[in-house]
Write a structure and sequence with these properties.
14 helices, six-stranded mixed β-sheet, 441 residues, Gyrase A, domain 2, metal ion binding, 17% strand
Amino acid sequence: MPFTDTIYALSSGALPAGVAVIRISGPATTEAITRLCGPLPRARSATLRTIRTRNGEPLDSGLVLYFPGPASFTGEDCCELQVHGGRAVVHAILEELAGVDGLRHAEAGEFSRRAFQNGKMDLVEVEGLADLIVAETEMQRRLALEHSGGGQSALYEGWARRLTHARAMIEAELDFADEDDVPGSVSASVWKDMAKLRGEIEEHIGQAGLAEIIRDGLKIVIAGEPNAGKSSLLNALAKRDVAIVTEIAGTTRDIISVDLSLAGFSVKLFDTAGLRETDEVVEREGIRRARETIGRADLVLLLSDNPARFFTGEAIPENVPIIKVATKIDRDDVSWLPSDADIFLSTKTGAGVADLLEALGSYLPDLAGKTSLSMPSRKRHVDCLRQASAALERSLSAEALGLDIQAEQLRVAGDALGRITGRVDVENLLDVIFSEFCIGK
């Protein structure tokens, strides 16, 4: 789609910084460059220029890089100004750009949106780029890079080609069944491949849980009775004072969370209110929230400073794994047997903390030998994949209804795959997807 306006924005990090990058994209890019920097520089070469106001007053000196469309990030004429990263410098240059006719400040994600709408990226690549910008762990980086680099899209496009081929073969049989160069029946080859394709899609959907852990983190809840050492353990694992620790039972009233990186994975730790019966209104609300958080956990660390008081009640669902952690083992007034708990530790001395981290690591996904992280990382991906799988199942089971009905279901499956990459009917999704980006990207 054509764009009549030209956009600009600061595309680098927070100011002040050593270098700031100001990006310009659109039909008036060359006009903006010549107005601020003089003659148009050679394409795709860094050129040192003085950046001036419309009256010729110097604002700064920096590198100018010009990328004529369509061979640019957005598919339009683009320019990057690499200038000194002072607030006053950047503000002055942005003010000067605002005075150029046809230029306006970019909205969040607008550069990437133009890249999508000009066919430079598909939606999976766009979402991968957004994830790459905010990636905090090694596995998040690898997953985002797989998506932004087109690896995931290539898989979906391969599946779409197989669906298109199957439909073409079926329609050829329907339209030219009496011709000598069309086989009498393509069912054997087509339906065998479609059954195989459905199996591949189902296997792919099965990796969504792993992708969720990589992208959103393994959710670990620290639970137990009041004063069992939950907040002390959170502080010890976070290596800073996140939660208030006192000898008073019921100190923690609300959910406190900390993000950690463990073996390249994101781990989200939740400290919760002590589980017990109470009439105190605020503490009771904290316990209700604790139970809700435990219900959404991937793993629960159940703490107790006494082997007889591992309190669970009905708070922990049966399908959630539990690690029993004996706390305050530096005290002499409590005797523990090896069978009483899974981990024995003291946050005061640090004993057992390494054992706990090793135990947590065993609950992280095993990606040994995986060179590619091609897996669905968002709910909309999974929803579309399930729609494609269901359409394939309907097609495979509709033999009695005729080839035309089966071919229509293959078309539905292809459209579902197309919605993942943005090839089919995704206009209503665009505002949501690109709103995740920062200004200037």
